[in-house]
Sequence to fold (112 residues):
Amino acid sequence: MILTLIAGIITGFIVSIPPLGPIAFALISKGFRNEVKEGMAIASGSAFMDMIYALIAFGGISLFISLLPESAEAVVKNNSNIIQIILTYAGCVVVIVYGLRIMRTKIDLKKI
Fold:
């Protein structure tokens, strides 16, 4: 019992170091199921999309905003706090739902 408690504390500490999001949970889930190919596909897709997001953020966000009509730009500027709150809560819901989905899957300890 003490060994399990210590292992849980150490695992919780190590896992809490990087910021965990839906991609990290998906990779952890695939790792527990020993699905290396699927995990590599998720990681590669995530890295590719992060690159696309960085290119958009650094290279073209002002161009994108300049192409929007003035009414859409005004809506975004006036409601930026509400948009951030909605996106934050939506991300929380995705992480919670995916976590519950992972918790409900039965994993055979003999396969691990």
Observations:
- DSSP finds six helices and no strands in the chain.
- The chain has one domain: 2-104.
- The helical segments are 2-16, 22-32, 36-59, 61-67, 70-78, 80-104.
- The longest helix spans residues 80-104.
